[in-house]
Structures are given as C-alpha cells and as structure tokens.
Design goal:
One of its GO terms (molecular function) is DNA binding. The chain has 242 residues and is α+β, with helices and mostly antiparallel strands. The chain contains four helices and ten strands; from the N terminus they run αααββββββαββββ.
Length: 242
C-alpha cells in the first residue's frame, strides 16, 4: 500500500482527507472487501506514513460517509458499498505493486477549440469544445498523460485554477452533470508529442492506452478522453464480484 506524500497541487487536500480519499478509493476498487477488517490503527498508520491521530480522523470521516464501520473492541470494518457515485469510482489505473493510490492531476494545458471530427459530438453539431491535458499522479508518482474533451456550451471561459483533480466533480459543480456510465477501450499507442519529462516515457514510445466515452444518465455524451499510461508503473484494473 502506498504512503501519503505531499502533492504538487497548490490546492492539496489536508493529510487526513488525503488518507480518507485513498482508503475510499481502495474500498470502491475492491482492494478492501465488504465485511473485511482493516489492519490495526498503529500498523495502518505506519504503512501510510501518517500519525495515528491523523488516521483516526480519516477513519471517522469514512464512518460518517458509511464506507466503514468502527466496532468497539473489535476494529474497523468495510461496510456494504453505497450505489452513490463518488469522485474516483471510475478511475481504473492503479500502481502496479501497491494498488490504488491517491489521485492528483497537474494541468498542462486548457484550450477552447473547434470540435475535432474524431471526438463524439457534445450538444449541437458545430459547437466548440474544451480540451484539457493533464499529467496524472497516483500517490505522487507520475503514471499517465490525459487528454480530455467536453462541450464548451455554457462555459465560454475556463482557467486551469477552476479545475480540480476530479473532472467528474467539476462537471457536477459547474454543470450539474453526473456521469452515469463509461465505455473504455484498451490498447497500446505511441506517447503523444506533448508529453512532459516527469511522465518518464518519451514522445513516440509505446504506452498503454485507454479511450473512454462517458455519458450522463440522460444518455448524452459528456466527455471523451484518451489516457496514455506507463505499464511499468501502473495498470488498468477492473474487479467484479457477485
């Protein structure tokens, strides 16, 4: 399991919330199973590299969110998952050796452009679209490059500062738009020319590739994205249970 590190993001979450987000993501990804008891607090705090008091604050927050149940004299257990979608439920990239990490993103570029022909139509044909390019980190480790497209209708100005680590949370807050389902297509593709050095792979090198279309509950296309990831550092993971 990865330890908590300071984020390069200027709007980094407090440490206890970073711990809570990391554990929540692990639970939603199936890394911790329903009914499973978490390690003792002292052991888990050492693993995460945080103080026991910080860990307890994070566990209390997750208990309030009904992801965990704390049983006096027994320990902390994973509760049955809510169907309510949260920030990183659909993020499938995980660190190869330590599982789900805390996601953060560095914005590289934000542009309003004519709608490219290879991107699904958002709204009316001919509408402009926003393109966001990011470097994705998991627990501080750079693992992926992301290029994200979404419709510009109702959003004529946009700065990097307005975007947080989660685009889906941004859609909810800015447009009252919730992502209901996604379709991912996995393969391999050359690293794009706009790759930045922290990514580790040079432009043109072979990388894992994810092409995603995301829809709203009303079956409207909300987002199209491409992700290039370093398969030596991370992998795409999907867990199923019955």
């Amino acid at each position: 399991m990865p330890s908590i590190r300071s984020s390069a993001n200027a709007q980094a979450l407090p440490v206890y919330r970073q711990v809570a987000e990391l554990l929540a993501r692990q639970i939603r990804a199936g890394y911790w199973h329903e009914g499973e008891r978490l390690p003792p607090e002292a052991e888990l705090a050492v693993t995460l590299g945080v103080a026991v008091g910080t860990l307890r604050k994070a566990l209390a927050m997750l208990a309030e969110q009904e992801l965990l149940e704390r049983v006096q004299g027994s320990g902390t257990y994973v509760k049955r998952l809510s169907r309510r979608r949260r920030q990183y439920e659909l993020l499938r990239l995980e660190l190869r050796h330590t599982g789900p990490g805390l996601p953060t993103a560095q914005i590289l570029d934000v542009c309003r452009l004519p709608h490219p022909p290879e991107v699904p139509v958002f709204g009316a044909p001919g509408d402009a679209a926003w393109r966001v390019r990011r470097l994705r980190r998991l627990s501080g480790e750079p693992v992926a490059l992301e290029e994200i497209w979404f419709g510009a209708a109702g959003c004529h100005e946009l700065s990097a500062e307005a975007l947080g680590d989660s685009m889906y949370l941004f859609y909810q807050q800015r447009f009252q738009r919730w992502i209901a389902r996604v379709e991912d297509r996995l393969g391999a593709a050359p690293v794009p020319t706009w790759a930045v050095p922290p990514f580790g792979l040079a432009a043109g090198a072979s990388a894992g590739h994810i092409e995603r279309i995301a829809w709203t509950a009303g079956n409207a296309v909300a987002e199209f994205s491409q992700t290039w990831f370093d398969p030596q550092r991370c992998c795409y993971t999907s867990r199923l249970s019955q």
